Each structure stands twice: as structure tokens, then as C-alpha cells.
Amino acid sequence: MSLVNLIEFPMLGDERGSLVALESMKNVPFDIQRIYYIFGADSEKPRGFHAHKELQQIAICVAGRCRMVLDDGYTKEVVWLDSPDKGILIGNCIWREMHDFSSDCVLLVLASHHYDESDYIRSYDEFLKEAHKPFIHPLSDVKSINIGQDTKIWQYSVVLKDAIIGVNCNICAHTLIENNVKIGNNVTVKSGVYIWDGTTIADNVFIGPSVTFTNDKKPRSKQYPDKFSKTTIKYGASIGANATILPGITIGEHAMIGAGAVVTKDVPDYAIMVGNPAIVKGYVNK
Ligand code: T46
Fold it and tell me: What is the structure's pLDDT at 1?
């Protein structure tokens, strides 16, 4: 999706000249709380260099032109503002810079909130942190604060306090992650997966929907083993939908576990496992 969200305002012109009307919640998608304008800006002195936590704005060059740079922490885009009937909508958490003001430039800005310095993020590093902060869906229950940047945790997922989840993971809806669980970076956990104490999942692992992990070889209600068996899924392994991983198993790097397989023994690196009990069907190459 482009960062440049231009709004074209209808020109209500006639032979006497042009007129543009800006109306809250009509052609301006927020309540206008403040209007300011920048003029007499020095073309050699760029402005902006900040983002806002909440503020939404529309900037319109009602005279002259300037070059705006927008940055969402992933990509940058450049747009020339040079027309009084064209406004750019700048959402929250977008870094903006204004450059190359023409001497006649008047930059009009409509803002969704009153001026509040505490809403500014003026350090680029702080902005990047904010832009890449994990997304925790409001319908999830995430107690851990050890969730890496760019990770997403979706609806009806429960993550207990001591779980550790790396960067850029996708933890889909309806998952449970217990305390003594360590998940690396770039891991996908599809829906319906419960990850119990004693499980370590390395970087780039894919866990398909409804994969079943276990950590107790002889489960009895209200009788607990001295310690729960450990499960280790190594770098780049994939586990197909509905596979069951019995307690104490290590799955090797890049291994591929077929859908519905029941894994009863450690899996070598690169092995393709299928069936119940799962057997080596072949090997994937790098
Ligand atoms: C933005 C870009 C497009 C106020 O007291 N009230 C105000 O409403 C505004 C906008 C600014 N100020 C004070 C704060 C500073 O002491 O005016 C001074 C200059 O503001 P700033 O350095 O933030 O100006 P720009 O041109 O770098 O940025 C402005 C807006 O602040 C900002 O929200 O998105 O224009």
C-alpha cells in the first residue's frame, strides 16, 4: 500500500476564480481541531523530521510547492505538493520531511488534535522502534513482554508471562503459548496450536494448523512428571497440519513433517517424515 494518500478536493470555480471547501468528516476524514500554515520557508532549510503518535493531518500547498518525504519505517516515498486542490493525508506514526519550499509556498495543514508536543516523536531511532513494535491484537491475552519487533499475535491467542517470542513472527488466532517456551525469529504458528512448557522453536520454523505438541509421556490427571519432556524444533523445519509430536522429540533443521504424521522418534536434519508412526520418506535439499 502506498504511503502517498492524496485527496483531490472538488474545485468550485467559476469565471470569478476558484474555491475549495474543506469539511470535517466529509472530504476531511477527521474532526479538524487545528489549522496552521507555513509560509516564507527557506528552500535550503527542510522542516518536519518527526512523526506523531496519534495526530492525523492533511497538508495542502495552497500556493507554490514543496517536496514531502514520507516514511513508515519500512519504505520511503516522495511527493510534490503543488496544487491547492490536492491534499496529502498523513496518518500517525509516519515520519515526514518537507524540502525545497518555493519562495511563494504556503503549506496549509489541517490537524485532528490541538498542538501537543508530547505527541511528537522527534528521534528517528525512537520512530523506528514505534513503527516496528509488535502488533498484539486487542482480543488476545498476552502477558509476556518478550515479544520481538514486527511480530503479530492475533485474536484469541494466549501467551503466558515467561514465554519468549522473537522478531517478525506470525502467531495466528486461537493459539496458546505456555511459560517455558522459546520461539525464535520469523516463525509462523498457524491457528489451533498449543505450545507447552519445555518447547524450543528455532528461527524460520513453520508450524501448520492444529499441530499437536505433547510434553508428558504418561499423562494422568493431577499426576505430574518430575519434569516435562523437552521438544526442540530446529532451524527452518516445517510441520504439516494436524501432525502430532510425541514428548521429548527433536526435529532436525529443514525437516518436513507431513500432514497428520505422528512423530515418535527424533527426526534427522532435512528428513521428510510421513505416516503413523512417522517414517523417513526421503530428504529435502537445501
Ligand atoms: C507537521 C508538519 C507538516 C505550535 O506551537 N503549534 C502548532 O500548532 C505547531 C504546528 C507548531 N507549534 C510550535 C512548535 C515549534 O516550537 O511551532 C514551532 C515549529 O514547529 P515544528 O518545528 O514542529 O514545525 P515543522 O514545520 O517542522 O512541523 C510542522 C508541524 O509541527 C508538524 O506537526 O506534521 O509541520
Answer: 83
